[in-house]
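hey m, so remember when u said the tokens were messed up on ur end? i reran from scratch. heres the input so u can diff it against urs
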Amino acid sequence: MSIQLSRRGFLASAAVSALAVGMAGVKVRSAFAAETAGLDAISQAKLVAKGEATSLELVNAAIDRIKAVNPKVNAVVTETFDAAREKAAKGVLPESPLSGVPYLIKDLDDVKGVRTTHGSRLMAKTIAKDNSAMTTYADEAGLVILGKTNTPEFGLLATTESLLLGPAHNPWGLDHSTGGSSGGAAAAVASGMLPVAHATDGGGSIRIPASCCGVFGLKPSRGRMDLGGRPMPGDIGVQNCVSRSVRDSAMVFSLSEDRSDKAVFKPVGYVSEPVNRKLKIGFGTANYFGEEPDPEVKAALESTAKLCADLGHEIVEVKNPLNGEEFITKFLTVWASGPAQLVATAKEKGLDPNQVLEPWTVGLAEFYAKKPKDAMQTSLAYFKQVEAQMDKFMSGFDVWLTPVLTSPPPKLGQQAPTVPFDTLYERTIQYVAYTPVHNVAGTPAMSVPLSWSKAGLPIGSQFAARKGQEGLLYALALQLEQARPWADKHAPVFAG
């Protein structure tokens, strides 16, 4: 297989070569598993479409890589390997640009007949009765689901360290956080297990782990996707994926766009051309508290701004218009309403919340309980004000460039759910002071892996646009991918 692959030219790119060498370092069982580690999903699907590989071969290769790397990173927490092999072996998959490609679903979404834990002891034995909307879209696209990825309890933290599932380890530094809440998905892609994985975002949960793990992740606009009737409070949650290549993300996104008659946005589909016009890019590194990030993050974002200027775009200095204290108080009021319901559910079942829910979750419930009775209503009204304010602010430029996070990925344990609530509260609101605004405003935003710290940890750059402008963001990301490629980098976890 190695000779055939080389003759077909599949190993021509540095990305494939680097990952192939790395995978050999962790002793995957087959040469095919190593050599296909650097292929993105669209390239893998083309092998199947041309009859140059089978879906079963791709599935077995991905399983081989998971078995080799997952013991180190703990990205995959539930395996459905037998079902995946059975599906792939049938050889009759729906036709799509991603048909036959291995895929993983985040453990906040349902796969029929498979456990959905939400990273919580409260849900540890829950078996899904049906597929979620995103799982259905994956099936319809011919993606082959290999299992579920790690997540913090109910996706409530910006790190993936649940008491039930254990911590996910960053492939770039195993004692560092993967971010959250799609930390398992990002770690799986960054470590070469597979090219793309399902992810969700209610406050930064696609962009944060994408930044931490050096992969690409785009959060769509509010209303852009059919979520199957499961909106988060405040309608802040969306879904998509994390990926190694920009085009894979765009393709997965296009498969799950809202298909109802009410859809108002132009479909994105396959992105093959970089942005072809000069953009006006608003740029600022201070967060909504008026505070600057870690010096390495600031330097990385200034480098990104210079790259954009070198590509011909206009960079203009802008300042985040929000009052950070007001924003985070209202945002966390809405965020904590879910944990309050979880505590009530545990009590209804005769369970002690402190035994089945994590301290952070219980702490959020207590935080919510201290709020006035009209706090939720007031916060949701404030969300509408923020949406209008951000619409006006972002009308002054095409794209807004900021950091994703205040610092490079922290050490595991620093933001664990067992850290005392007041301490964890302060650490969290400072760390994620750039991402949740786009969930409230409903604007699309992406983390692009353009920088690494001196310690070799990824630092993402966040680009946002007005609602419905995913196509513009993808085209800009493709230009950046070509100008400063990241797929030729592979995480130190490959070293064995």
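this time it looks ok to me. The radius of gyration is 21 Å. if urs says something different then somethings off w ur setup not the seq
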